């Protein structure tokens, strides 16, 4: 019988340790990098402004210039810290995302912050351009100057910052440590390019805005050029501070070259608290560390997981439980969405319409059946080796004819009843409706108007006759509006708001299982291979359905997605990991009890490799 985990003091939890490290990284950013950068910038501006002011005036202005620049930079990183997040916002299409990001308190706060920063930076650069603050003999010029600094620059930067959700820190499951100096240096070209693009955009639009406030189309080429250079300097300063903040907050799971949990007296217990944390940033970093330990060349990082001691036998079961739970959450989320989408489209009045291809035959099932095998050379998703990135040339895809054409038809897990059912039993005579064209006999306009009118009537009826409301437990159907606005990439972000955690789980389990076969062949990690393979098989089935789903089939029937969505990447990673584990444990699989679906998929991947 396994010993129960020992409750840790809150000061030894992973979240507490990681919070202290984040505070340290933030302080280094505020007191070192930004202070040095601001001091250097203020000094350069003071030297270049000698032609406009005396030495005594420059000596007095230098502390003011330094203070204004530093306050501007500090206000940006404080605002970023308050809105920091690592998960996708979860909007299914661009329209919803844009509306939600713009009509919120966060947009107003960022607008005020960027306006304050723009004012501070413009004042520090005023002597360099030959005008002092907001006072100038040219009244029309100052009108344009104020509009540009207080409205146009802050609004444009805030728009792009909120629409593209630049508060979100992005991570790659292939990187566990990202030095901030390297991050910033590699981003300098992007900072210049982005600042230049926004400057050009304002330069093109500003004459029309200036005409509306000063009744003049131009303010003079020299003054116009000054405002253009000033605009670029403001954009560059703000963008540099944002990049510096992202660099320091996305360093990774290492602190001074060691995993974060090593700062605790009980590293593995602290790591487990991070894996189960409700704080997504903490959870992501804990999975990063687990992946780092699993794939490191340093055996000592895995020994605490392999070797159990008194009251420590729960470590691997707890780690395995958290990894499988994270993967299963993704599987269920994707499966439930595809089932809901299928039911919604099936319920339309022309739902009995079957999609037919160019030859007039019914569409094939997503995975398998004899038709799909015989026509595998014409389907790039079936031609390519599972796990290889989509869109590769034919000689790189390793075309393979499937011998077991039903191997990827998985059984969906019923989480409430604890039993499995095969989707082929219910849908043997039916194509996948969520891959079916949305247009039938009705036009888009009439369908949308009819849906809006129906929803309005239902809302009025429910308000005056609440007894007619539908039961709360009734299965939710997707509206036709959602169906028309579907974006596969954004829908993947909504279903899996933190895909890096799922990816780190896969890499961690694969690394631990492969290394344990030589480092601890008789331990508990090796004995868990069947359970891990079963969860990976479920991921292959659930995520594979989404990977083969093409909502833009009607508009672009032959067009493939340039960049795969997050779920497609997870699908490829799942198949690759399944393949690696099966090859590594090929000699031992016959002695293990494996689920039938796992056996089928194992034989298939071994046949692909010619074993």
UniProtKB/TrEMBL annotation:
Sorted UniProt keywords: Membrane, mRNA transport, Nuclear pore complex, Nucleus, Protein transport, Translocation, Transmembrane, Transmembrane helix, Transport
Skewed-composition ranges (Polar residues): 371-381
Compartments reported by the entry: Nucleus membrane; Nucleus, Nuclear pore complex
Any Pfam family matching the protein: Ndc1_Nup
GO biological process, one term: mRNA transport
Disordered: annotated segments: 370-393
Main location: nucleus
Source domain of life: Eukaryota
GO cellular component: nuclear membrane; nuclear pore transmembrane ring; spindle pole body
Molecular-function GO terms, alphabetical: spindle pole body-nuclear membrane anchor activity
Membrane topology of this protein: Multi-pass membrane protein
Family under the similarity heading: Belongs to the NDC1 family.
Name of this chain's protein: Nucleoporin NDC1
Organism whose genome encodes this protein: Zygotorulaspora mrakii (Zygosaccharomyces mrakii)
């Amino acid at each position: 019988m396994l010993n129960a985990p020992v409750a840790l003091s809150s000061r030894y939890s992973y979240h507490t340790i990681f919070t202290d490290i984040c505070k340290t990284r933030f302080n280094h950013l505020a007191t070192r990098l930004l202070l040095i950068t601001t001091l250097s910038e203020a000094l350069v501006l003071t030297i270049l402004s000698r032609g406009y002011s005396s030495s005594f005036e420059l000596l007095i202005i230098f502390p003011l210039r330094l203070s204004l620049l530093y306050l501007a930079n500090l206000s940006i990183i404080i605002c970023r810290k308050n809105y920091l997040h690592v998960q996708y916002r979860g909007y299914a299409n661009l329209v919803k995302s844009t509306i939600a990001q713009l009509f919120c308190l966060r947009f107003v706060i960022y607008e005020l912050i960027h306006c304050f920063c723009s004012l501070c930076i413009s004042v520090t650069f005023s002597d360099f351009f030959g005008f002092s603050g907001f006072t100038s003999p040219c009244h029309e010029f100052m009108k344009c100057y104020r509009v540009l600094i207080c409205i146009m620059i802050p609004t444009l930067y805030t728009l792009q910052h909120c629409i593209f959700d630049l508060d979100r820190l992005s991570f790659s499951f292939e990187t566990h440590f990202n030095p901030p100096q390297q991050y910033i240096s590699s981003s300098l070209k992007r900072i210049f390019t982005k600042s230049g693009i926004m400057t050009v955009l304002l330069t093109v639009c500003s004459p029309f805005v200036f005409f509306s406030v000063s009744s003049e189309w131009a303010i003079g080429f020299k003054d116009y050029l000054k405002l253009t250079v000033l605009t670029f300097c403001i954009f560059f300063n703000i963008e540099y501070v944002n990049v510096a903040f992202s660099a320091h907050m996305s360093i990774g799971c290492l602190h001074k070259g060691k995993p974060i949990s090593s700062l605790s007296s009980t590293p593995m217990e602290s790591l487990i608290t991070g894996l189960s944390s409700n704080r997504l940033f903490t959870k992501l970093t804990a999975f990063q560390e687990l992946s780092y330990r699993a794939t490191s060349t340093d055996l000592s990082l895995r020994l605490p997981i392999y070797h159990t001691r008194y009251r420590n036998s729960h470590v691997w079961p707890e780690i395995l439980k958290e990894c499988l739970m994270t993967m299963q959450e993704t599987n269920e989320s994707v499966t439930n969405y595809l089932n809901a989408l299928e039911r919604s489209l099936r319920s339309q009045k022309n739902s009995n319409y079957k999609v037919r291809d160019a030859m007039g035959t019914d569409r094939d099932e997503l995975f398998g059946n004899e038709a799909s095998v015989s026509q595998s050379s014409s389907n790039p998703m079936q031609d390519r080796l599972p796990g290889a990135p989509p869109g590769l040339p034919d000689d790189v895809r390793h075309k393979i004819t499937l011998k077991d054409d039903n191997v990827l038809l998985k059984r969906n897990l019923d989480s409430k009843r604890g039993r499995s059912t095969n989707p082929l039993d219910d849908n043997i005579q039916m194509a996948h409706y969520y891959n079916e064209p949305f247009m039938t006999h009705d036009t888009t306009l009439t369908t949308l108007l009819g849906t809006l009118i129906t929803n309005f009537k239902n809302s009025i009826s429910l308000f005056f006759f609440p007894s007619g409301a539908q039961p709360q437990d009734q299965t939710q159907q997707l509206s036709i509006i959602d169906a028309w606005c579907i974006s596969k990439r954004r829908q993947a972000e909504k279903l899996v708001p933190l895909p890096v955690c799922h990816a780190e789980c896969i890499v961690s389990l694969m690394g631990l299982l492969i290394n344990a076969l030589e480092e601890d062949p008789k331990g508990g990690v090796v004995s868990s291979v069947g359970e891990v393979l079963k969860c990976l098989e479920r991921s292959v089935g659930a995520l594979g359905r989404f990977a083969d789903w093409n909502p833009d089939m009607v508009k672009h029937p032959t067009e493939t997605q340039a960049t795969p969505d997050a779920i497609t990447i997870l699908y490829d990673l799942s198949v690759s990991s399944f393949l690696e584990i099966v090859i590594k444990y090929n000699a031992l699989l016959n002695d293990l009890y494996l689920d039938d679906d796992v056996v089928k998929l194992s034989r298939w991947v071994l046949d692909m490799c010619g074993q």
